[in-house]
């Protein structure tokens, strides 16, 4: 019986961590019936219907840019995922869930509520960079500044953590999904071919690049000619993808610069000495660490298994809740947030 659970409800996927391992990782996608809005498929099966649904069905992404956009669908999806991860064997689990930094109490409350409605109990919500800090094992009694950058699908969260709290942060709405959108636009413009989001993501993962590659690579992909409406194959090179996404890469670099510009100079001095920690699935884009390092002049360390550092850290935070209280961080549990 699992009793302590970390949950990362991201823009692209839900990851659940329990008993020292990832027990569930599924896309946040739900296919619904257009008339009744009844969920029909969840997760991988729903994601595969993206852009391929008949007129009677819609594929919904219930989390938009890190926040719940479709409450009822998120609740149904989480119920389904909790059951998939634990069957009926779960009794009053303690949950630590994460949100991007800088959101309102209401948004924290909304996440706690949806998890409770999905069967959770004792729910706490913390900001994701703090979860990453727990996972890194940072000394929460130290005033040293640590820069954590989480490049997810929908948000780039940049935070300076010190004394177990967030000293400076911002959550930017430019992230890995925007690379996909730029690739779609580029191929339409240059080849008059329309491709779906899954193809764009595949191109990004296989040959995408934040720096000019020494050895160019290319791949063949399929789409639909916008004039003839017929299927068509095309070849695309890594240099083309680089050109298509470079503006978005630069805008992510700029997000980091903005947070550094609003950070206390002493904390910046610590960061200059230690470098930054890069995490989130988007940090795996080829050469992104090199590009960010070049742009900021800072050392960049990509965390191992970057898609899981938030959820793993949430599980660690659950074991050390007292640390959050000691350092005057307001732990938002559902009880504390209850409206009088
Ligand atoms: N090897 C890779 N190269 C480039 N991008 C990748 C790679 N692997 C995964 N990604 C991208 O990482 C993103 C998912 O990252 P992550 O799981 O951190 O996002 P999330 O937590 O769901 O979103 P957010 O934190 O923004 O709410 C997807 O857009 C995916 O395409
Ligand atoms: Mg995330």
Short key terms for the protein model shown above:
340 residues, binds adenosine-5'-triphosphate, disordered C terminus, alpha+beta, single chain, 12 helices
Description:
The chain has 340 residues and is α+β, with helices and mostly antiparallel strands. It has a domain at 4-131 and 310-337: ATPase, nucleotide binding domain (Nucleotidyltransferase, domain 5, 2-Layer Sandwich), CATH 3.30.420.40. The protein has 12 helices and 19 strands. The chain has helices at 43-48, 71-86, 105-117, 128-136, 176-191, 197-207, 238-261, 265-274, 288-296, 309-319, 321-326, 334-337, and strands at 4-9, 13-18, 21-27, 30-33, 39-42, 57-60, 63-64, 67-68, 94-99, 121-127, 146-151, 156-162, 165-172, 193-194, 218-225, 231-237, 276-279, 300-302, 332-333. β1 and β2 (13-18) form a beta hairpin. α5 packs across α6. The site of magnesium ion (MG) has 6 residues, from loops.
Question: Topology of this structure?
Answer:
Layout (H helix, E strand, L loop, with lengths): L3 E6 L3 E6 L2 E7 L2 E4 L5 E4 H6 L8 E4 L2 E2 L2 E2 L2 H16 L7 E6 L5 H13 L3 E7 H9 L9 E6 L4 E7 L2 E8 L3 H16 L1 E2 L2 H11 L10 E8 L5 E7 H24 L3 H10 L1 E4 L8 H9 L3 E3 L6 H11 L1 H6 L5 E2 H4 L3
Parallel strand pairs: 1-9, 9-10, 11-17, 17-18
Antiparallel strand pairs: 1-2, 2-3, 4-5, 4-6, 7-8, 10-19, 11-12, 12-13, 14-15, 15-16
The chain binds adenosine-5'-triphosphate (ATP) and magnesium ion.
Largest sheet composition: 6 strands, mixed
Poorly predicted residue ranges: 326-340
- The strand order across the widest sheet is 3-2-1-9-10-19
Radius of gyration (CA) equals 21 Å
Q: Which of globular, elongated, flat, extended, rod-shaped describes the shape? A: flat
CATH class of the domain at 4-131 and 310-337: Alpha Beta
- Global structural class: alpha+beta
Tally the helices: 12
Mean pLDDT: 92
Total beta-strand segments: 19
Beta-strand content bin: 25-35%
What is the end-to-end distance?
Answer: 34 Å
* CATH level 4 superfamily of the domain at 4-131 and 310-337: ATPase, nucleotide binding domain
CATH architecture descriptor of the domain at 4-131 and 310-337 = 2-Layer Sandwich
Tell me the CATH topology of the domain at 4-131 and 310-337: Nucleotidyltransferase, domain 5
Helical amount: 25-40%
- List the ions, cofactors and other small molecules found in this model: adenosine-5'-triphosphate, magnesium ion
């Amino acid at each position: 019986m699992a009793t302590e659970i970390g949950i990362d409800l991201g823009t692209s996927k839900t990851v659940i961590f329990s008993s020292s391992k990832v027990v569930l990782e599924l896309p946040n996608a739900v296919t619904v019936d257009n008339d009744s809005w009844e969920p029909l498929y969840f997760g991988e099966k729903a994601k595969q219907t993206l852009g391929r649904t008949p007129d009677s069905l819609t594929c919904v992404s219930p989390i938009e840019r890190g926040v719940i956009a479709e409450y009822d669908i998120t609740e149904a999806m989480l119920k389904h995922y909790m059951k998939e991860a634990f069957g009926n064997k779960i009794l009053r689990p303690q949950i630590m869930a994460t949100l991007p930094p800088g959101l309102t109490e209401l948004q924290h409350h909304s996440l706690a509520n949806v998890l409770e409605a999905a069967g959770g109990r004792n729910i706490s919500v913390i900001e994701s960079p703090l979860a990453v800090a727990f996972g890194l094992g940072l000394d929460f009694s130290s005033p040293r500044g640590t820069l954590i950058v989480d490049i997810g699908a929908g948000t780039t969260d940049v935070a300076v953590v010190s004394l177990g709290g967030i000293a400076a942060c911002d959550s930017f709405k430019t992230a890995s999904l925007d690379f996909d959108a730029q690739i779609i636009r580029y191929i339409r413009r240059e080849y008059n071919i329309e491709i779906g989001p899954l193809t764009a993501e595949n191109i990004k993962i296989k040959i995408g690049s934040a720096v000019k590659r020494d050895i160019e690579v290319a791949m063949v992909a399929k789409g639909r000619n916008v004039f003839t409406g017929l299927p068509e194959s095309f070849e695309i090179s890594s240099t083309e993808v680089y050109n298509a996404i470079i503006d978005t890469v630069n805008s992510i670099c700029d997000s980091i610069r903005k947070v550094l510009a609003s950070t206390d100079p002493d904390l910046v001095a610590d960061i200059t000495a230690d470098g930054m920690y890069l995490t989130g699935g988007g940090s795996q884009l080829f050469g992104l660490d090199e590009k960010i390092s070049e742009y900021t002049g800072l050392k960049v360390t990509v965390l191992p298994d970057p898609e899981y550092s938030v959820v793993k850290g949430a599980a660690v935070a659950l074991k050390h809740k007292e640390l959050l209280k000691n350092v005057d961080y307001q732990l938002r549990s559902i009880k504390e947030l209850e409206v009088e």
